[in-house]
Design brief:
CATH topology: Hypothetical Protein Ychn, Chain: A
Number of strands: 5
Shape: globular
Strand content: 15-25%
Helix content: 25-40%
Radius of gyration: 13 Å
Order of helices and strands: EHEHEHEHE
Low-confidence stretches: none
Number of domains: 1
CATH architecture: 3-Layer(aba) Sandwich
Number of helices: 4
């Protein structure tokens, strides 16, 4: 089983890239890949709990929770969180505050790294 690391940079609802990245993560898990997800920049808001999206609209925090429940490892950049005023206790359960060193280690250990 290979490990694939996804780096997500975009804000949760500005375009469909974060949604598609999480969909890809789910498909990779379904094909028995280990998945790491590192949230950078505005993407850290994906992990903010308490998101209230309109009925019928995808909720990225819920998607992230489902992925964590399926075995994905998720880190949100601590520097990026701090600059946006988001505290670690505001994150979806199972998302950890990460550092660039964590991402560097994941990149070294992964068969593939995809920046989305």
């Amino acid at each position: 089983m290979e490990t694939i690391t996804l780096i997500i940079n975009d804000a949760p609802y500005g375009n469909e890239r974060p949604w598609n990245a999480l969909r890809l993560a789910g498909a990779l898990i379904a094909t028995k890949q280990r998945v790491n997800i590192f949230l950078l920049g505005d993407a850290v808001a994906i992990a903010k709990k308490g998101q209230k999206t309109p009925a019928g609209y995808y909720n990225l925090a819920q998607m992230l929770k489902d992925l964590i429940g399926s075995g994905a490892n998720v880190r949100a950049c601590g520097t990026c969180l701090n600059s946006r005023g988001i505290e670690g206790n505001e994150l979806v359960e199972g998302v950890f505050v990460g550092k660039m060193l964590d991402l560097a280690r994941w990149a070294e250990e992964s068969a593939k790294v995809l920046a989305i």
